[in-house]
What we know:
The protein has helices at residues 28-32, 38-47, 57-84, 92-101, 103-108, 124-127. The chain is mostly helical. Helix 2 (38-47) crosses helix 3 (57-84) and helix 3 (57-84) crosses helix 4.
Amino acid sequence: MPAKSVAAPAASGGKYKADAAQKRIQSRSSKAGLQFPVGRVHRYLKRHTKSATRVGAKAAVYTAAVLEYLVAEVLELSGNAARDLKSKRISPRHLQLAIRGDDELDLLVKATIAGGGVIPHIHKQLLEKGSKKSS
């Protein structure tokens, strides 16, 4: 059986230190597999809650995951709207069309989007031609 390797004590202290290759610093976002910053979300949650309320670590991960999902959904729909209008950039108009075109996002987002314009809509009765003649 081969002998187990033991790390030598560091020169500047009595504690054993692991090699840099063995112990790598990993962010909470990368541990959770997210792009949104979990640490920043946690800091904001702690800042905007009551002082006696504790904010758990999982709350920040969950909130960051929800925010990332919502952003991905809006970007996907607005990217599709931009592609339909033959544009390579997402403008506020594309965001407006994407959000107002989706029922669930329309319920969630109540804000006015600056530069978004209005949703094209013509009432049915205005489209009907006058087929009824008055005699």
